[in-house]
């Protein structure tokens, strides 16, 4: 059994910031392309009608809603794809993190989508990120989105004497052993459920994962 420590708030915050920057860059590029296409089409028609539509408050309100919805969709697609692929976004990959299910097995695209939707709950629709702050106080470092999807985030460094999740060695293979694997996936856990090892004042204590 190999123990992988639960990832804490600040390490996950840095990874999330990197991912947020990537999403913002992609969003800006797509917005510029869409804007150029829109203005090119509008300028080829009646300029007076185009100016009237551009200054119409109702039109601007609808445009604002469309932009917000598009950003949320891009946000969810990004995290669903990377987490469903191997549990590691570019940000998590740089920080040595990986999302796995609570029993140590890889998550599916369905769970990845549920977790991405949980981000909206954790951020209270991008207002107050209480669900993310919860990570700093939870004993398993789970945010609200983790609890919704039944996932944990681990540090890929082996920590035998740290509190974390224990995964059978046979469920993990090195990148070199898996052709084409460049991300270090956590492979499906065996029938035996992994164990949680937590250190208290009296020494090391372990318990089965429910």
Account of the 3D structure:
With 210 residues, the chain is α+β, with helices and mostly antiparallel strands. The protein has one domain (2-208). It contains seven helices and six strands, in the order βααααβαααββββ. It has a six-stranded antiparallel β-sheet. The longest helix has 35 residues, at 9-43.
Condensed summary:
The chain has 210 residues and is α+β, with helices and mostly antiparallel strands. It has helices spanning 9-43, 47-54, 57-86, 90-95, 109-122, 130-133, 144-149, and strands at 2-6, 97-101, 151-158, 164-167, 195-200, 203-208.
Blueprint (SSEs and pairs):
Elements: E1 2-6, H1 9-43, H2 47-54, H3 57-86, H4 90-95, E2 97-101, H5 109-122, H6 130-133, H7 144-149, E3 151-158, E4 164-167, E5 195-200, E6 203-208
Antiparallel strand pairs: 1-3, 1-4, 2-3, 4-5, 5-6
Helix pairs in contact: 3-5
The run of helices and strands is EHHHHEHHHEEEE
Please give the alpha-carbon distance between the first and last residues. 17 Å
Give the biggest beta sheet. 6 strands, antiparallel
**Average of pLDDT:** 79
In terms of quaternary structure, the protein is single chain
Low-confidence stretches: 174-210
Number of domains: 1
Strand order of the largest sheet: 2-3-1-4-5-6
Beta-strand percentage?
A: 15-25%
Q: Give the overall silhouette.
A: elongated
């Amino acid at each position: 059994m190999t123990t992988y420590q639960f990832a804490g708030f600040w390490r996950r915050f840095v990874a999330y910031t990197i991912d947020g920057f990537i999403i913002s860059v992609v969003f800006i590029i797509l917005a510029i392309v869409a804007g150029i296409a829109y203005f090119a089409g509008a300028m080829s028609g009646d300029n007076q009608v185009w100016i009237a539509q551009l200054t119409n408050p109702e039109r601007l309100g609808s445009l604002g809603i469309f932009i917000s919805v598009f950003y949320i969709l891009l946000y969810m697609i990004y995290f669903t794809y990377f987490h469903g692929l191997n549990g590691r976004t570019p940000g998590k990959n740089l920080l040595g993190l990986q999302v796995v299910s609570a029993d140590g097995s890889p998550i599916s695209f369905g769970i990845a989508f549920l977790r991405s939707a949980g981000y909206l709950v954790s951020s209270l629709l991008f207002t107050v990120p209480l669900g993310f702050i919860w990570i700093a106080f939870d004993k398993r470092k789970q945010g609200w989105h983790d609890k919704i999807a039944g996932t944990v985030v681990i540090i890929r460094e082996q920590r035998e004497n740290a509190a974390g999740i224990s995964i059978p060695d046979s469920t993990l293979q090195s990148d070199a052993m898996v052709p084409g694997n460049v991300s270090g996936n956590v492979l499906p856990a065996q029938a035996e459920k992994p164990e949680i090892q937590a250190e208290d004042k009296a020494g090391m204590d372990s318990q089965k994962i429910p």
